[in-house]
Every structure is written in C-alpha cells, then in structure tokens.
Design brief:
Blueprint (H helix, E strand, L loop, with lengths): L2 H5 L5 H18 L1 H10 L13 E2 L18 E4 L9 E4 L2 H15 L6 E6 L1 H6 L3 H13 L5 E2 L7 H11 L2 E6 L1 H8 L8 E5 L12 H12 L3 E6 L8 E3 L11 E6 L7 E2 L5 E7 L8 E11 L2 E7 L9 H4 L1
Parallel strand pairs: 1-13, 4-5, 4-6, 6-7, 7-8
Antiparallel strand pairs: 2-3, 8-9, 10-11, 10-12, 12-13, 13-14
Helix pairs in contact: 2-3, 8-9
Length: about 325
C-alpha cells in the first residue's frame, strides 16, 4: 500500500499511533537531518507517539530536509521571514500537499466549485515561493470561476466581486492575512454573506493584537457571520481551522502534542500550556514531527494558540536549539 493510501484516511487513536511510528522509522532511515537529530538524542526506538523526537522548526532555516528516496524536489516553499531569515521547505511530492489541503478545505469550509474565492495575501504574493499562495491559487483554479482572484492593493474593487458572487449564487470565501482584512474595515464592505478565513499575522504592517481582539473587530466592522482562522506554516503540508471558539482542529492525518517548556523532550497532558508539537503525516517525504515555536493548550483533538515562545520561556530548552 502506498503512503498516500495509508495516510489520507480516518484513523483510530491506535491506528494513528501505529502509522506515526511507521513514518518515524521511514524518516529515521531516509531523512538524514532528522536521523542525525534522533540519533544525537538517542531517541531511535520509540514505542509510542510521546516518545518520538520532534525536530525544532528552526532547522528549516539552515538544512535541506527531504527524503533521500527522491533524486530532486518538485518545489521549494519559503516562509515570510517576519522573524528574520526565511525557512525553506523542499517538497518532494506536491500532490501530497494538494491532496492534504484540498481534502481539509472541503471538510471544514466547502467545495471550491461552489464558491468565489478571493485571496488577500499581498506580502506572500510579493515575496514569492509561498505555500499559502500555492494553496489559495489551487483553490481559485478549482473554483472554475472568473471572479475568483487575488487582490493586492485595489481593495475598493472587492465590493463589486461581492455583489457579482451573490448574483451568481456562489458562496463568497475571502482568505486573507490579518492586516489586509483590517484594511477592509475602513472601506465599510459588508461581508455578512461571506466565509472569511484569516491566516494570522500583521507581518510588521500593524500592531499585533490577540486572536480574540482581531476576530471581535472583524466580526463587528465587516458584519461577518462565518469567520474562520487557518493554522498552517511553510514547514507543514497540513492545516488546521478554527471558528469562533478559537480552538483549532486538523484533518485525521494531523495531530498536536504539547511539550513541557522546561523539559522539551517531555509531553504534557491536556489543558496545560506548553510548546506545540505537530505530527503531520502528509509530510512523510520530509519530516512529520515538528517542534514549533508556538505555545498552546490542547483540548482533546483540538488546540488553542497562546502565542509565540519568548526567550523567557526557553529556560531548559537548550537541547532544542543546539
């Protein structure tokens, strides 16, 4: 059975753990960077999900992380570089990414064929090599709708698209970075009939605000009834979505574990704040076990973002960054 057939299906808790251990063994053999890291830690024979070592996401800034079973990568995605140097994700099989984001989008948001999809991601488009732009562009193409498009600066023309979408009987979906959605507030655009997906981040364009503050302002000033947030990153091939409860949930091939900020190789239980570790089985040809620089709290199969890890939180975490 091919990896795609194994990964993209519903899994019981035990099935997911068994598959994660299988993916771990594959990556231990075929991903040099991850293998070196796991061997350095002496963590090469985990018996359960909590014992699998998670690679610090900062490795993507300096190392090429890809399975040696591929002669060459198909594309490279790069981060926005808001925190400094851009991370690079060498993707061996873009079909795995397409299947992952398309299936997840359809499950949480709807079918692109029934929608008009607008992308408000100016900084990502301008920088290039963005996995988010790749995803939204694919969704726009799948919508097969001439009104689906990216907007960079002429946001005042969005009102015309809103009206056309309603006349066509299409569900309007606006996917935007936080500061671009806030720019819409000044235009007085009514998005009451739209699905709005904010992808987070002010990218240095506006003062940062909490997710609660951002959602409250957008709902009030744009008259939004259906507001989602998307959690994804360059280093992953899967995304999670949340609605008004601000608790994210991913697809069946993605799981979140919370690590102890003072003992980063230890996994802690639900409803405790710690560093977010992500199991992304879709990234089987890269690294499926990523220790992010975000903090959060896990509630069953959902999680809530609490912010970035500050230097003050990194006491006892030297092993992750050496």
């Amino acid at each position: 059975m091919e990896w795609r057939d194994k990964i993209f299906k519903n899994h019981s808790i035990q099935e997911f753990e068994d598959l994660a251990l299988e993916v771990f063994r594959y990556q231990l053999t075929h991903c040099e960077v991850y293998s070196d890291y796991a061997n350095a830690l002496g963590k090469i024979n985990p018996s359960n999900l909590s014992e699998i070592p998670f690679l610090p996401i900062s490795f993507y800034k300096s190392r090429k992380i890809i399975s040696n079973t591929f002669i060459e990568h198909e594309c490279v995605f790069k981060s926005s570089g808001t925190q400094g140097e851009r991370s690079s994700h060498y993707v061996a099989d873009t079909d795995m990414y397409k299947h992952s984001f398309d299936s997840t989008y359809r499950s949480f948001i709807g079918n692109p064929e029934d929608q008009t999809i607008i992308g408000l991601l100016p900084n990502y488009v301008e920088q290039g090599d963005s996995s988010l732009v790749y995803m939204v562009n694919s969704l726009i193409e799948n919508s097969n709708n001439n009104e689906s498009q990216f907007f960079l600066s002429e946001l005042d023309q969005l009102q015309e698209v809103v009206s056309k979408s309603q006349n066509m009987g299409k569900q309007l979906v606006v996917i935007g970075v936080a500061y671009s959605l806030l720019d819409l507030c000044a235009l007085g655009i009514n998005l009451s009939n739209a699905i709005v997906i904010e992808t987070g981040g002010m990218k240095g364009r506006r003062k940062e605000m909490s997710k609660e503050e951002l959602h409250s302002k957008l709902i009030k000033e744009l008259n939004i009834n259906r507001l989602y947030s998307e959690y994804g990153m360059t280093e992953l091939l899967s995304q999670a979505y949340c609605t008004k409860d601000l608790q994210f949930q991913g697809p069946p091939w993605m799981r979140v574990l919370i690590r102890d900020l003072y003992d980063p190789l230890s996994i802690i239980g639900d409803e405790k704040r710690g560093g977010i570790n992500i199991v992304d089985l879709a990234n089987v040809f890269g690294c499926s076990f990523i220790a992010t620089e975000d903090t959060g709290i896990k509630y069953g199969d959902k999680f809530q973002l609490m912010g970035r890890i500050e230097k003050s939180d990194l006491r006892g975490c030297n092993l992750l960054v050496e």
